[in-house]
Write a structure and sequence with these properties.
Aminopeptidase; 29% helix; elongated; disordered C terminus
Length: 545
């Protein structure tokens, strides 16, 4: 980190921890070092902690004096990050620290993704857990692995370690927006064995390259209309194949299943008489990129240069079938929600293409807030891939988080946000995948909400985080937890019910979601109807507004 960054953030505990974890490699599947850092933190602060079989870390902090026995709250984020770097930039994500930089109010990383998705959640929780002055009830930090590669940590989370039934996920990217739902998703992969042949001496080899595309998060930014470098390259190949037969030698595009592809390259051969056509089509495609993507991808570029004839190429028939399959693969927004204005309901991201002389692989990721719609776009993607002769598989499915407009936790968070900031919060759902859906499926009575600071360009080297927004969100989180500690009912003498308006957030799970005020005889009758004994219940304190 440069001196200006160090000077600006040296007294800020959130930024201190963010700097520390930015020194630690934590690409999905390589979370051992960041997991050990969390274990060492918990040990140094004498905090109960456990690592479950999936590699997730759960850390507990006791409540402030006088608040030790109220209902706990979980604070959740993921350890891993999407690791993307600029073409030609030297950085080894298995060992090199991120090079943090400040640009005005924004924190970025030189040449790479920043990892604020979701490193800022880890930093906030560690700052809170090391803050002796913070006022709160019992807290659980839930740090998951492999979120960016299909919510693997949340899928395999051992829920018996989670005592909380209220969860605050800190993996959102717009301050003041509170999410109570998200899309579900899955992946389709296609694989086939190349059918190889020798190229003719009458053929010329070309290297096609597309670069400068913005890329970005395939959930949160799929609606922006950013170009897919793979599809733009295939579009060029399809036009060329209509005039001259193409033989593919190699293809490479995209980096992660949840990233809109920003680069694509391909080596192919065509008859030598196609030289002028190749050059003309490149010029036409460059103009098309400028006309179609001037706002979304102003730096998108395409080029083609002659190269040495490869030793082997795919047959023309197989090459044509691969081009057709990719050309027909759906990408982008498939449908918008009819329930929430402006929300993408279903999308598909043609994410990765790899072809060499040994193998050929395609990967696309699907998202939808409706399971049947996700399955339908999955089926269409499989059908397209299979046109090439590929064997397809469907994997890494995770459920949608169905919005609960009556969520007591969301109501409290929104009401307190108004009082704390004087601003009106936005309560909505998001097309990106959040771990709340998977965690809620393991604990059906979990009441969850997600919020976070302003981030942009996530999953790309343009990722940036507003420093002032991170500070405001952390301040809000501290104040919210103190406020919640005053609202929540004491759990010392048995099952607990708290009353907030006419909704009943219920630690004993007898009344959760019922809409009626239960007091006096109504309360007693309701307990008896559910098989409980009124005498076993303590006097309840309302979960106050």
């Amino acid at each position: 980190m440069d001196k200006d960054t160090e000077k600006t953030t040296k007294d800020d505990q959130v930024m201190y921890y963010f700097r520390e974890i930015s020194k630690i490699p934590r690409e999905s599947g390589n979370e051992a070092a960041i997991r050990q850092y969390l274990i060492d933190f918990a040990t140094a602060h004498s905090l109960w902690h456990v690592v479950d079989q999936a590699g997730n870390v759960i850390i507990r902090k006791e409540g402030s004096p006088g608040k030790e026995k109220i209902a706990p709250i979980a604070l959740q984020g993921h350890m891993d990050m999407v690791c993307v770097k600029d073409e030609g930039y030297e950085h080894d994500f298995t060992r090199d620290p991120l090079q943090l930089q400040i640009d005005g109010d924004y924190l970025t990383a030189k040449g790479t993704t920043l990892g604020a998705d979701n490193g800022i959640a880890i930093a906030m929780v560690l700052a809170l857990f090391s803050n002796a002055e913070a006022v709160h009830g019992p807290l659980e930090g839930v740090f998951t692995v492999s979120e960016e590669t299909g919510l693997g940590g949340a899928t395999d989370l051992e829920i018996q370690y989670i005592q909380s039934r209220r969860l605050i996920n800190l993996d959102s990217e717009e301050e003041g927006i509170f999410y109570i739902g998200c899309a579900g998703g899955g992946e389709v992969s296609g694989t086939l064995t190349p059918a190889l042949t020798m190229p003719s001496e009458d053929e010329q080899a070309w290297r096609l390259t597309l670069s400068g595309f913005t890329g970005g998060h395939s959930g949160a930014e799929i609606h922006t209309g950013r170009g897919n470098a793979i599809l733009c390259g295939v579009r060029m190949l399809k036009r060329l194949d209509r005039t001259f037969p193409i033989a593919l030698a190699s293809m490479s595009g995209g980096s992660k299943h949840n990233v809109i592809p920003s680069t694509f390259s391909c080596t192919f051969t065509v008859p030598k008489e196609a030289d002028a056509t190749v050059e003309a089509l490149v010029e036409e495609m460059q103009q098309a990129l400028h006309d179609e993507l001037a706002v979304q991808d102003p730096h998108a570029a395409i080029s083609a240069v002659k190269t040495e004839l490869p030793g082997q190429v795919l047959t023309r028939e197989q090459s044509a079938s691969i081009i057709d399959a990719l050309y027909l693969t759906p990408h982008g927004v498939i449908s918008m929600s009819s329930r929430l204005d402006g929300l993408v309901e279903t999308s598909n991201n043609l994410a990765i293409v790899r072809l060499d002389q040994n193998s050929c692989t395609f990967i696309a990721s699907q998202r939808s807030s409706i399971a049947s719609a996700r399955d339908e776009i999955e089926e269409r993607t499989c059908t397209a891939f299979e046109l090439s002769g590929a064997l397809t598989s469907r994997e890494n499915k995770y459920p949608a988080w169905t919005p609960n407009p009556s969520s007591p936790l969301a109501e409290v968070c929104a009401e307190f946000y108004r009082r704390h900031t004087g601003k009106e919060p936005v309560i909505t759902a998001i097309h990106a995948g959040l771990e709340c859906g998977m965690i809620n499926s393991k604990a059906a009575d979990m009441d969850s909400i997600s919020f976070g600071p302003d981030l942009s360009g996530v999953h790309s080297t343009d990722e940036r985080m507003s420093i002032s927004s991170a500070a405001r969100v952390y301040e809000y989180l501290l104040a919210l937890l103190e406020d919640l500690s005053r609202r929540l009912t004491d759990m010392n003498t048995g099952p607990v019910i708290g009353i907030m308006g006419n909704r009943i957030p219920n630690e004993s799970r007898l009344f959760y979601g019922m809409e009626r005020d239960y007091v006096n005889h109504d309360y007693v009758e309701a307990v008896e109807r559910c098989g409980g004994s009124p005498s076993s219940f303590p006097s309840v304190t309302p979960l106050r507004r």
